[in-house]
Amino acid sequence: MPGDDGYFDERVAERYDEGEPEMFDPAVVDPAVDFLVELAGEGRALELGIGTGRIALPLAQRGVPVHGIELSKAMVARLRAKPGGEDIGVTIGDFATTTVDGTFSVVYLVFNTIMNLTTQAAQVACFRNVAAHLEPGGRFVIEVGVPGLQLLPPGETIRAFHVSETRWGFDEYDVANQGLTSHHFVTVDGRLERHSVPFRYAWPSELDLMAELAAMRLRERWSGWKREPFTSDSDKHVSVWEKAAV
Ligand SMILES: C[S@@+](CC[C@H](N)C(=O)[O-])C[C@H]1O[C@@H](n2cnc3c(N)ncnc32)[C@H](O)[C@@H]1O
């Protein structure tokens, strides 16, 4: 069972940046930052699950004031150790319910992190919490995978998502409960370590309904940060909901 830091504890935090280096590639990070800079305008940005600052640090370097909410003190310690990391305010807590002072022009939740909330009630609470932090006309951005059920043959529950010489990843589906556990196996100093994280997946339309419940409306949906079209073949989406301007 996870401790106070949740599933991103010291053991995970110490290897987070090296674990999936492709996610730190400027080719991946820069389009997300460009997208968020545009939505932030002259306002502030709030990142839910800020982690080690993969997106927050370059966004702040582009002149956008960024605040974060994060459960894991171990992840925040890595953010703090990076250049500029001390200048980003972080509130420790659960982003479904934790509040911070002030309002924001954009709140964002990237890299599948909405799925870390493993109940529908918690995901709905998160949308409501976001709406409470947005200024009128403000935007909520989510980057998350489309549930990979089309890739799951009938009767199967396991699908590999990464296989390499040193790292293996398998998603285990619990379709009846919209549950998904990602099992990560990695070799460290010749030993195999396992780390499993539970998720709740949701179709884009369910997220739209959560937005409606929080008085937000879908404004944009793309399959990537460069505004690539979202189609039946897309394996992820970048969605933007807007809080009504009063
Ligand atoms: C996949 S990492 C993403 C980190 C960062 N946003 C990035 O893009 O690299 C998910 C992060 O969300 C945090 N997290 C997960 N569930 C959370 C919750 N309910 N409240 C606050 N933080 C949470 C984890 O501790 C972790 O740092």
Describe what is shown at a glance.
This protein has 246 residues and is an alpha/beta fold.
Task: Please give a structural write-up.
This protein is α/β, with parallel strands linked by helices and 246 residues long. It contains seven helices and eleven strands. The strands form two sheets. Strands 3-2-1-4-5-11-10 form a seven-stranded mixed β-sheet, sandwiched between helices. It has a four-stranded antiparallel β-sheet with strand order 6-7-8-9, with no helix packed on it. A hairpin with a 4-residue loop joins strand 7 and strand 8. The N and C termini lie far apart (44 Å). The model has no long low-confidence stretch (mean pLDDT 96).
Mean pLDDT: 96
> Which ligands occur here?
S-adenosylmethionine
Q: How many individual β-strands?
A: 11
- Low-confidence segments: none
Q: Helix segment count?
A: 7
Query: Which series of helices and strands comes N to C?
Result: HHHEHEHEEHEEEEEHEE
Main sheet: which strands, in order across? Answer: 3-2-1-4-5-11-10
Q: Give the CA-based shape.
A: globular
Specify Rg, calculated over alpha carbons: 18 Å
- The span between the termini is 44 Å
Can you give keywords for this protein?
7-stranded mixed beta sheet, alpha/beta, 33% strand, 246 residues, 4-stranded antiparallel beta sheet, binds S-adenosylmethionine
Task: Write the SSE topology.
Layout: H1 10-13, H2 16-19, H3 26-40, E1 45-48, H4 56-61, E2 66-70, H5 73-80, E3 89-92, E4 104-109, H6 120-133, E5 134-145, E6 158-163, E7 167-174, E8 179-188, E9 191-200, H7 204-213, E10 216-222, E11 236-243
The protein binds S-adenosylmethionine.
